[in-house]
From TrEMBL:
Gene3D superfamilies: NAD(P)-binding Rossmann-like Domain. It comes from Scleropages formosus. Belongs to the short-chain dehydrogenases/reductases (SDR) family. PANTHER family: PHOSPHATIDYLINOSITOL-GLYCAN BIOSYNTHESIS CLASS F PROTEIN-RELATED (PTHR43157), RETINOL DEHYDROGENASE 12-LIKE (PTHR43157:SF69). Pathway: Cofactor metabolism; retinol metabolism. This is NADP-retinol dehydrogenase. Keywords: Lipid metabolism, NADP, Oxidoreductase.
Amino acid sequence: MISIRKLLGGRWSSAARLDDKTVIITGANTGIGKETARDLAHRGARLILACRDAEKAEAAKKEITEDSGNQNVVVMKLDLSDTKSIRDFAELINKEEKQINILINNAGIMMCPYSKTADGFEMQFGVNHLGHFLLTYLLMDLIKRSAPARIVNVSSTAHTWGAINLDDINSEKSYDAKKAYGQSKLANILYTRSLAKRLEGTGVTAYSLHPGVVQSELWRHLSTPLQLAVKVFSPFTKTAVQGAQTSIYCAVEPELEKESGGYYSDCAPASCARSARDDEMAQNLWDLSCQMLGIAWD
Ligand SMILES: NC(=O)c1ccc[n+]([C@@H]2O[C@H](COP(=O)([O-])OP(=O)(O)OC[C@H]3O[C@@H](n4cnc5c(N)ncnc54)[C@H](OP(=O)(O)O)[C@@H]3O)[C@@H](O)[C@H]2O)c1
């Protein structure tokens, strides 16, 4: 069992340090986000765990602090399903932090029953894409002032499950939980491509990635038989530590400073679907996201 897991990828090996760097990781209280945070804490970064559940986040902070010896780990409240919470979080960051060198948009929700965010967006599109889009927009000036800086968007190979449905972006006419997840993960990649173009020459780079099929709480909305199937197939999936490696690679690998806008898997460039390379759709998605959020971001 262990050898199959090893084939799926071990730890990315690099001694790179992040002393004097500040990192925000969304959804850092469990799963891939927590393991990403743990690794970056060992590298000496100041870590901001941006989480919606304060109790779970404090428990993660305690674990990470004890494990790494890094006392510079803080918890801040962020609910990506509510633009007010995102704005409050960003306001505090912009007021209190002198730099943000790495933003890891990791939080995610998969195949939940149909529901809407506080602002009326379909939940998966709202949290996975729009929430992170708004967060990045609100932190952009600070991130640019902190350059060299990076933005890492955790997407998925599930981007192939869906399309960007411009006519029914909130799945109000019909809802397919799997397609809606696919739409949100496709949006992560298209958004990263658009962002990278807009950031050319600023010293800020952007990456999207697939972490692998990972044992985490992401499967919580699946039916019991499907959750059981995920457990049965666990030897063929990654642990959360393994699943965090490509996020860590995109956040840290010095060579990547010369790259921007790409999609990664297993700590290497990866190919994504044609729909994820559609620059016309990327522009349409950008415009629609701005319109839905009531922001002007050229
Ligand atoms: N696991 C996989 O196989 C897999 C595969 C491909 C891509 N991914 C992607 O990897 C990322 C991390 O997923 P994971 O596997 O680590 O899942 P996870 O264990 O379920 O962790 C998801 C994190 O996102 C947070 N979150 C969910 N909704 C939120 C909201 N409204 N506001 C703020 N935080 C919110 C969760 O907080 P709570 O604990 O409070 O719910 C949790 O911290 C996701 O973007 C996912 O799409 C995962």
